[in-house]
Each structure stands twice: as structure tokens, then as C-alpha cells.
Amino acid sequence: MKKLISKILLALISTLTILNFHSDCPAQTAKDKAPSKIQRHSINADEVLIQKGFVNDFAEILDKQTKDKLEQTLSKFKSKAKIDFVIVTVKTIGEENPVDYSLRLANGWAIGATNPDKAGVLMFIAVESKRWHIQITRELEKALSNTEVRQLGELMVPLFREKRYGEGITKCVDAFIKVLKERRSKK
């Protein structure tokens, strides 16, 4: 019961950034929803989505150079700032809510749990669902408001609209790192 309450509270406290990459897309109606031919990743993060490092590109949208650079940047950030920053891309989540999906991943992978103050960020992107969400741990909520997390995440959107996913993710990651370094150094 405590675990359920904790998850609910974390979901309520976490950022509520659920935005379409294309704000001009009309809402989909029930008759428009056809079964997807894309294999949907399981919503049970513990069973199917196995964390491979800081960059988990299950949607295969990042080239090797971008992946390697992000992995290096995030590894260095963790060693210096003691903050886990994990990126997850999937093709689609179907009708699943990206907040719930990313929260299950963050909890299932224990993002931030190995750090002394439990600081962690999970950037979740469902490419073909055109949804994203950024989860932060409670410790980081002291440094970043929900509005700031949303604004930082929105840096990706114009580049995502042009299918420049690697650039969008890198821009957002760099902005997050800069802000977190500044805020936590004042701690």
C-alpha cells in the first residue's frame, strides 16, 4: 500500500509534460485509430525494456556518433554531479499515458537510487506516438520547478518536428546539465 501511495504521489509531483511534437495535428478520434503495425514495446519496463546505459534508443532514432557522445556526456555528468540522467526512446506507447509509462521505467530502473541524494532524470520519448515526458526525482524538484522542466523539454520539440531527434535530445540534455550544475553548486 505504501508503495502504491508513493508511486501516486511521485506521479502527481512529477512534471506533467505531455506534448505532441506537432501541435497543429488534429486530435485523433476513435474511428481514426487503426491497429498499429509497429511492434509496441511492452509497458512492463522490468520485463522488456532493459536499461543498456544512459542512452536507451529502442526506437533507433540516434546515430552511433550522437549516442556515443550523449553516453559520454551523461557518464561524466553522473560522476561529477552525482545525478543519473537516462534517455529512453521507443517507437510507440499506443494508448498508454507517457507519464505513467516513464514513471514505471524510472521506478523499475531505480533512476537515481545509487546516488547519495537519490537525484535522477529520465527523458522519455515515444517517437511515433509524438509524446515525451521528463521525470525528475524529488531531490531535483528542489532545483527545478515543473515549469522549468517543461520549458527545458520543449527545447526538443522544434527539432523533433524536423525529425532531427539527436539534435533535439542533445540540446535538451545540454540545457538540463547547465541548469542543474548552476543550481546545485549553490546548494
Polypeptide structure, described:
The structure is a single chain. By secondary structure, the chain is of the alpha/beta class. Helices cover 42% and strands 12% of the residues. It is built from seven helices and four strands, in the order H-E-H-E-H-E-E-H-H-H-H. Strands 1-2-3-4 form a four-stranded mixed beta sheet, with helices on both faces. Helix 2 runs parallel beside helix 7. It is globular and about 40 Å long.
Output mean pLDDT: 79
User: Beta-strand level of the residues, as a percent range?
Assistant: 5-15%
Oligomer: single chain
Specify the number of helices: 7
Secondary-structure map with pairings?
Blueprint: H1 2-13, E1 55-57, H2 64-81, E2 84-90, H3 98-108, E3 120-126, E4 131-136, H4 138-141, H5 146-153, H6 157-161, H7 165-185
Parallel strand pairs: 1-2, 2-3
Antiparallel strand pairs: 3-4
Helix pairs in contact: 2-7
Keywords:
disordered N terminus, 4-stranded mixed beta sheet, 7 helices, alpha/beta
What is this entry, summarized?
With 187 residues, the chain is α/β, with parallel strands linked by helices. The protein is 42% helix and 12% strand. It has a four-stranded mixed sheet with strand order 1-2-3-4, with helices on both faces.
